[in-house]
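Appendix B, Record 12. Input sequence as logged:
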Amino acid sequence: MGFAALYPSYIWRPMTAADLPIVKSLADIIHPAFPESEAVFANRLALHPDGCAVLDGDDGLRGMC
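Logged structural output:
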């Protein structure tokens, strides 16, 4: 059974500037050995918005790529 079947309320959507504080918090948890500032994520979003996505669900953001 795939991810979509297990978690139907989660969707990948384009990242927005409003997501940046949560993206930073997730990154701190996921990659604690590689800290990056919120400005780094803002720069990525500005340079290549089509390459920035977040996994969003009923209970908030759960991932990013």
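The chain has three helices and three strands.
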